[in-house]
Amino acid sequence: MGTAGPMLLGGHRGMGENLASHDVDGQQLSVYPAYRENTIQSFQQAAKCGVGFVEFDVQVTRDGVPIIWHDDDVVFGAADSPQRPMVKDLTLAELQALCGRGNTAAAAASGYLASGDYYLHHHHNVLRGDSEDGSTVSSPRGGSDEGSTTADDGAVGGRPRSRLLRLFRDRSTRQPGTQYEPWACAQDDSIPTLEAVFRAMPPEIGFDVEIKMTTGDDVVHTPAEEVDRMLSAILPVVDRLAGPQPPQEHFIDGPLLLPHPYRNPAAAATASSATAAPAAQQQQGQQPMGRRIMFSSFDPDVCVELRRRQSRYPVYYLSGCGLYSHADARRTSIPAALSFAAGAGMRGVVMPASVLLKNMDTVASAGASRLELMTYGLENNDLAALQTQADAGVVAAIVDEVAGVTAALGGGGAVAGHGADSGAGKA
């Protein structure tokens, strides 16, 4: 498998972050990939492409339900004056209604449906059914998967299209947008709960469960009550649905992947037996290993609390390592990120590929502290960049161009180092 071993590939928000393609006049042409990010359809398609795991963002609604959603807010309405309620200030029913894919019966029973439109009534005046001037304010039309649509619903495949807005990054330039645009995907899907994702995905697909927090860039320490609000809702769902699984030594060490030398120098001698483990378990009637799960977060306080509250799954610290500005040095400095992760008992650090590719000595520094390195970012769409990381010993790369990357690699979920058998190490 080469000196560094294989590098596992993960699907970023499933098939990738939704990006916008624009023509020469700056008009939006389409949203790519076709699958709405962070949805079950997107996760399932990524699994079909051959990734070893999917990365997704978990937030908790006002009524305590862990859901999959990246942004801190939900944007809808007029592009020049949109409404932007925070996810944590909305109930699950309100989120489903805003997405245009909520359950009609449930919304009606909750008082969110009137005259064919959803009216969102927030108890803390974040989003109200009536505007300040007394006029009625409604969210986008929506319905159940089986519900009917009206002529102006913008239906896709007989189902109502979402009326959400977004500041897209441009697919070609990778630059963030400056104005809100319609967030319409050819393959739309509802906002899923964490429980629904567990039930919908095959057990061989690993989960990178990123805990999203909404504290500002000027806040070094997140209030303990906010950390508790998130983890008290998320961890019970994971414990209940993850299935039988012995304690994991490492997230990437599946039955088809060789451990990296710096983590277990003697592992190479037992690699063949590890590869044969699933078949042997079936022959002996043993229960196979369950889903591989890891937790990650940009918030150091969340990572520490995850380690304190559970030891079943590894925790990785997510850091911008200088790519983003922040008051906390652990989010802006490579040495600070590695020092924190090692001292706090994290399994590794997930950092931007763009930063790592300019500081490749970071891999050796992490290895010296017995930390694994994973990367994310649009740079991971480039096969040469992936190969460089695989050769250096990066254990996993989260990619956005899932269809293109996996097709180029023959549908496998691992990138082999130099001298590797291209058919080995797939997950």
Lateral arrangement of strands in the main beta sheet: 1-4-12-13-14-15-16-17
CATH top level assignment of the largest domain: Alpha Beta
Count of DSSP-assigned helices: 13
CATH superfamily of the largest domain: Phosphatidylinositol (PI) phosphodiesterase
Helix share, percent: 25-40%
Number of strands: 18
Measured between the Cα atoms of the first and last residue, the distance is 14 Å
Instruction: Write the CATH architecture name of the largest domain.
Output: Alpha-Beta Barrel
CATH topology of the largest domain: TIM Barrel
The profile of the biggest β sheet is: 8 strands, parallel, barrel
Residue windows where pLDDT falls under 50 for at least 5 positions: 102-161, 254-288, 418-427
Shape: globular
Structural class: alpha/beta
Radius of gyration: 22 Å
Number of domains: 2
Percentage of residues in DSSP E strands: 15-25%
Average of per-residue pLDDT values: 78
If you had to describe this structure to a student in words, what would you say it looks like?
It is an enzyme of class 3 (hydrolase). The chain is α/β, with parallel strands linked by helices and 427 residues long. It has two domains: 7-69 and 191-415, TIM Barrel, CATH 3.20.20.190; 74-175, no CATH class. It has 13 helices and 18 strands. The longest helix has 18 residues, at 224-241. The protein starts with 6 loop residues before the first strand and ends in a 12-residue tail after the last strand. Mean pLDDT is 78; it is low at 102-161, 254-288 and 418-427.
